[in-house]
Amino acid sequence: MVRQAQASQQQVAIRTAEAASATAGVAQAQANLEAAQLQLSYTTIVAPADGVVTRKSVEVGQVVQPGQGLLDLIPLHDVWVTANFKETQLAKVRRGQKAEIYVDMYGKTFSGHVDSIAGATGSRLSLLPPENATGNYVKVVQRIPVKILLDPIPPDKAVLRPGMNVEATIIAK
Asked: What is the pTM for the complete model shown?
């Protein structure tokens, strides 16, 4: 009987060890599941803003790397115009002044305001600024970029897109 009790105690110890091993296996499987869920979350790509996709360079199922360009996203709710005015036209222009933008596509005028005036002329800001290496000085009226923010436009009235032709007028009184 003593032998049987000792054998039962050993079986209890073995079963306890098996239970501990099974518990460790469950914990490992739980950790593997959480790691797989984390990896799966990396497969969802979320845009930083609302907009319209204009150029897509990736297909479903393709493997991509961090930092790789996938598409061009154009936000259509924050619309502005960069108008290049002659320097002689900007003497009375200030930040906050009202502006009107006539859009060729719609044949309508939309309101806005001057947000900023560039700190340099367009030729100075270009990739290859012009140089007058011949020594001949010819005075050329320069153009200065002016950023005009448009007031919100309901989408059912008009949708303005980058690159459209417009005529900008600043109301300087």
From this structure: 0.63
